[in-house]
From TrEMBL:
Keyword entries, A-Z: Hydrolase
Domain of life: Bacteria
Family: Belongs to the glycosyl hydrolase 3 family.
Organism: Streptomyces javensis
Any Pfam family matching the protein: Glyco_hydro_3_C
Phylogenetic placement of the source organism: Bacteria, Bacillati, Actinomycetota, Actinomycetes, Kitasatosporales
Annotated InterPro entries: Cellulose_deg_GH3, Fn3-like, GH, Glyco_hydro_3_C, Glyco_hydro_3_C_sf, Glyco_hydro_3_N, Glyco_hydro_3_N_sf, Ig-like_fold
Protein name: Glycoside hydrolase family 3 N-terminal domain-containing protein
The UniProt record lists the keyword tRNA-binding: no
Length: 789
C-alpha cells in the first residue's frame, strides 16, 4: 500500500507519516557512501569564539578532513563540549553553526547526532561536577539519582547535545580495577536500580542514555584495564547482565555501548550472540549499539581477529554494532569498498542505518522544522558571539544544591568511637595530601581532570572549595593548621615529621587521604589507573600510622575512587569517614558530617578490605569464596557491603510473615518495625537479602534483592512492609535457563551484608518454574507511621 505525503517535502521529512515509512524512503534514496556516512562519528571540539567545530587530532587516529566528509553526511559529532574548554553559550553557537552547515551540505539535509560524556555530570567546561557513580551507589537513593540525571540531561539539551555516554553498569568484581570510581558498586541489584534511575532521569530530559560497558569489562583478570574476562555463563547471566536488563526494560535506554574486553576469547564487539541474540532478539532492544572508542579498530590491532579494517568493519556490523566512534576508520572507505566488491552484504549496512535514522527521526532531526539553535540560545543575537559569553549557566544554584544533596547522602561513616560529631574543637590539625587540594573531590571523567589538566592556563570553570575552606566555615572559632605530610603517590616522607608535630599540638587530627583521579597512569584512580594491591597509594599509610602513634585522636577522612585497606586505622582511628569523589559540593558534605550538621546515611556500595592483597573479593560470593579452613587467606572485609553508621540509633523488631509457604509463582509479605531510639533525626537503610540453603547449582551465600530508606525523627517508628515475589529467588540453572526452584529460603532484613537484624524462613512450593527477562524484578516496600515511644 502506497504511503502518501505532503508533496512540498520529501517523504523522509514528513512527520505526518510513520517513522518506519520515512526511514525506508530515505534508505532507498541513499547511495552507499551516504549510507555509511551515517554510521560513524567525527571527534570535534567546539570553538570558543562561536565558529564552527574543528576536528580533534587524537594520537590514536590520523587527522580527519571534515570538509571532505560533509557532502555525504555525518552520523555523529563526538564530544563537541568535552574536548577543549569552551564557554557553554559559545560552544552551543559553534555546534549550531556546524549543524546548520552540515544539513545544508548533504543532499538530504540530515544533521549529526551530537554526543558527550556525562558520567558524573555533563563533562563540559563550567558544568556542575556531581559525585561519581560509586557515590550514587552509596546513597541507596534512586529518587535523588533520578533527579540528578534529569538535571544533567536538561543542561546537555540546552546546548544542543542529544546523547550521553552514561551510565556505567559494570558490577565491581575486583576493586583493583582503575574504573571502580565509575561504577555504582559490587552488587547487581544496587547497580541496576541506581543506574536505571539515572537513565530515567537522563531520558526524561530528551537525552539518549548509553549503557556501558556491555558486558564483562569489570571482570577483567587481576583488575587490569582491557584484560581478558574469565567469567562463566552463569556469572555473566546472574551478576553482570541484570543491570543492563533492568535499565533497558525499566529505564528506556536508547543506546548501548560494547565492552572492550573479550570473554573466553570472544570480544564483545564481535559477539553476535550478545549484541544481537540476547540484546535484540531476546530483550527486544530497538535502539542503537555504539562502539566504545576505537573498539572496532581494536578487533584488528588488539584482539587480532580481523586482518584489515574492512574485516573489522564486517565483523562488528555482523555482530550488531551500528555506529563507529569516536572517528571514522573501519566504517568509512574500508566498509564502502568491501560492500561494493561483495565482501560485506549491503543488508548489514542497511540494518544499522535504519536504527540510526530511526533514532534521528525520533529526535526530530529529520523534521522540516528542525532548528539547529538549542534552547539555551533562544532569543539570543547569534551574530554577536562576544555578547553570548556567560549567557548559559551550567552550574546554577539548583544544580549545586542537588550536587550537595547527593554528596551528603553518599558520605559513609565507617567507624566512630564517639569522637564524631566534633564538639567545637579549639585546635584542629588538618593533615594529608587531600586536605587542601581543590580537585581531590573529582573523578577522572570530570571536565577539570579529564580535559582541564591539558589546559593548565584555563580556569577550572567551577568553584571547588577545599576541605580546609569548608572546615574554616564550619568551625569559625577553631584554629586550623594544615600540613600535607606526603603526596598522593610520590612516596615522600620528608613532611611526615611536621605533620606529626602539628597533630601533637591539636585537639583533633583530621587526616585526609585517598586518590588523585587521572587517565592512563596519570592518576591513582581512573581509566587505565589500576592498582597492584588495595593499599593506600604512596606513603599515605606511613603517614597514617605515624599519626596513630600519637595521643591526639585521629579521624581518617578518605576522598578516593575505590575502597582501600586501612591497616591499623580500622581499629585505632577515632573515626573513619569514607567519601568516593563527592563532586564540587563534596567538602561541604564532609564538613557537615564532621560537625554533626548532617547525620550520615551513606552505605558502602563496595566493601572495604581488611588487607590489601585479598582480591578479588566481594560479599557476593559462594561459601568457598568466604573465609574457610581450606585456605589461609581470609577475604572477610573490614567493613562490609551496605555498612554505614549514623549519629542516632535504630531498633528493629516485631517481624511477622504473612505465610510460611508460597508457590514458586507467588509472593510473601514481611512486616516489621524500625524505630529511631536515639536523640536526633536520621535515616536507616533497610536492606533485604536472600539466602538459598540448597540449590541445584552453587549460589552466593546471600544476595541483595531490595532496599529502602527510612527517615525517622527521634522516638519515631514506622511499620515497614515488604512484599517479595518468588521471582527474586530465580537464578541460572543447570540447563542455562533462569529457574525458580521449590524449597526453603532464608530472608534476611539487615543493616548491611554483615549486620543481619531480622530473619524469616519461607518455603517455596510447587513445581520448578522457568522465568525470563519479563520476570518480576523488585520487592515492594511500604511504610506506615506508628506512635512515638
Amino acid at each position: 500500500m502506497a504511503v502518501e505525503n505532503t508533496p512540498e517535502i520529501p517523504l523522509w521529512n514528513d512527520p505526518t507519516v510513520s517513522v518506519t515509512a520515512r526511514v525506508d524512503a530515505l534508505v532507498d534514496a541513499m547511495t552507499l557512501q551516504e549510507k555509511t556516512a551515517q554510521l560513524y562519528g567525527v571527534w570535534v571540539g567546539a570553538s570558543d569564539q562561536g565558529g564552527e567545530v574543528a576536528p580533534h587530532q587524537h594520537d590514536m587516529e590520523e587527522a580527519v578532513d571534515l570538509d571532505a566528509l560533509l557532502p555525504t553526511g555525518l552520523g555523529q559529532l563526538t564530544r563537541p563540549f568535552g574536548t577543549v574548554p569552551v564557554d557553554p553559550a559559545l560552544g552551543a553557537l559553534s555546534l549550531a553553526r556546524t549543524q546548520s552547515r552540515l544539513a545544508a551540505t548533504n543532499r538530504f539535509g540530515i544533521p549529526a547526532l551530537a554526543h558527550d560524556e556525562c558520567l558524573a555530570g555533563f563533562a563540559a567546561w563550567g558544568a556542575t561536577a556531581y559525585p561519581v557513580p560509586l557515590s550514587w551507589g552509596a546513597t541507596f537513593d534512586p529518587d535523588t539519582v533520578r533527579r540528578m540525571g534529569a538535571a544533567i540531561g536538561r543542561d546537555m539539551r540546552s546546548v544542543g547535545v542529544h546523547q550521553g555516554l552514561a551510565p556505567v553498569l559494570d558490577v565491581v568484581r575486583d576493586a583493583r580495577w582503575g574504573r571502580v570510581e565509575e561504577t555504582i558498586g559490587e552488587d547487581p541489584y544496587l547497580v541496576g536500580t541506581i543506574g536505571t534511575a539515572y537513565v530515567q532521569g537522563l531520558e526524561s530530559a530528551g537525552i539518549v542514555a548509553t549503557l556501558k560497558h556491555f558486558v564483562g569489562y569489570s571482570a577483567s583478570r587481576a583488575g587490569r584495564n582491557l584484560a581478558p574476562s574469565s567469567v562463566g555463563p552463569r556469572e555473566r547471566a546472574d551478576v553482570l547482565l541484570p543491570p543492563f536488563e533492568m535499565a533497558i526494560r525499566e529505564g528506556g535506554a536508547r543506546s548501548v555501548m560494547n565492552a572492550y574486553t573479550d570473554t573466553d576469547g570472544m570480544p564483545s564487539a564481535a559477539d553476535e550472540d550478545l549484541l544481537t541474540g540476547l540484546l535484540r532478539d531476546t530483550w527486544g532492544f530497538d535502539g542503537t549499539v555504539v562502539a566504545d572508542y576505537f573498539a572496532i579498530a581494536f578487533l584488528k590491532t588488539l584482539h587480532g581477529i580481523a586482518a584489515d579494517w574492512a574485516g573489522a568493519a564486517g565483523t562488528a556490523l555482523h555482530a550488531g554494532i551500528d555506529v563507529e566512534l569516536p572517528n571514522v576508520k573501519a566504517y568509512g572507505a574500508p566498509l564502502a569498498e568491501a560492500v561494493a566488491d561483495g565482501r560485506i552484504p549491503e543488508a548489514l549496512v542497511d540494518r544499522a542505518l535504519r536504527r540510526v535514522l530511526t533514532q534521528k527521526a525520533m529526535l526530530g532531526l529529520l523534521d522540516p522544522d528542525w532548528n539547529p539553535v538549542p534552547a539555551g540560545l533562544d532569543g539570543a543575537d547569534l551574530d554577536d558571539p562576544a555578547a553570548l559569553r556567560g549567557r548559559i549557566d551550567l552550574d546554577g544554584p539548583e544544580n549545586r544544591a542537588l550536587a550537595r544533596t547527593v554528596a551528603e547522602e553518599a558520605v559513609v561513616l565507617l567507624s566512630n568511637d564517639g569522637t564524631l560529631p566534633l564538639a567545637r574543637p579549639r585546635r584542629i590539625a588538618l593533615l594529608g595530601p587531600n586536605a587542601d587540594e581543590p580537585t581531590a573531590v573529582l573523578g577522572c571523567y570530570s571536565f577539570p581532570q579529564h580535559i582541564g589538566v591539558r589546559h593548565p592556563g584555563t580556569p577550572l570553570g567551577i568553584e571547588l572549595p577545599t576541605l580546609r575552606d569548608t572546615l574554616s566555615a564550619e568551625f569559625p572559632d577553631a584554629e586550623i593548621t594544615v600540613a600535607r605530610g606526603t603526596g598522593i603517590d610520590d612516596g615522600d616522607l620528608s613532611g611526615i615529621r611536621e605533620a606529626a608535630q602539628v597533630a601533637r599540638e591539636a585537639d583533633i587530627a583530621l587526616v585526609v587521604l585517598g586518590d588523585r583521579a587521572g587517565l592512563f597512569g596519570r592518576g591513582t584512580s581512573g581509566e587505565g589507573c589500576d592498582a597492584e594491591a588495595l593499599v593506600l597509594p604512596g606513603a599515605q599509610q606511613h603517614l597514617l600510622d605515624t599519626l596513630l602513634d600519637l595521643e591526639t585522636p585521629v579521624v581518617t577522612v578518605l576522598l578516593a575512587g575505590r575502597p582501600y585497606a586501612l591497616g591499623r586505622a580500622v581499629e585505632e582511628s577515632a573515626a573513619i569517614v569514607q567519601s568516593f569523589f563527592p563532586g564540587e559540593e563534596g567538602t561541604h558534605a564532609i564538613a557537615g558530617v564532621l560537625s554533626g550538621r548532617t547525620n550520615p546515611s551513606g552505605r558502602l556500595p563496595a566493601s572495604v578490605p581488611r588487607g590489601p592483597d585479598s582480591q578479588p573479593a566481594t560479599y557476593l560470593g559462594a561459601r568457598l569464596a568466604h573465609a574457610s579452613e581450606v585456605s589461609n587467606i581470609d577475604p572477610t572485609p573490614a567493613f562490609a557491603f551496605g555498612h554505614g553508621l549514623s549519629y542516632t540509633r535504630f531498633d528493629w523488631a516485631d517481624l511477622t510473615v504473612d505465610v510460611q509457604e508460597a508457590p514458586t509463582d507467588g509472593e510473601f509479605t514481611l512486616t516489621f518495625t524500625v524505630r529511631n531510639s536515639g536523640g536526633r533525626s536520621g535515616t536507616e537503610v533497610v536492606q533485604l537479602y536472600l539466602h538459598d540453603p540448597v540449590a541445584s547449582v552453587v549460589q552466593p551465600v546471600q544476595r541483595l534483592v531490595g532496599y529502602t530508606r527510612v527517615e525517622l525523627k527521634p522516638g519515631e517508628a514506622r511499620r515497614v512492609r515488604v512484599t517479595v515475589p518468588a521471582d527474586l529467588a530465580s537464578f541460572t540453572g543447570r540447563d542455562g535457563r533462569r529457574v525458580v526452584e521449590p524449597g526453603e529460603l532464608e530472608v534476611r532484613l539487615a543493616a548491611s551484608s554483615a549486620d543481619q537484624r531480622l530473619t524469616a524462613r519461607v518455603t517455596l512450593t510447587g513445581a520448578e518454574r522457568h522465568v525470563d527477562h519479563t520476570r518480576r524484578l523488585h520487592a515492594t516496600f511500604g511504610q506506615e507511621p506508628m506512635a512515638r515511644a
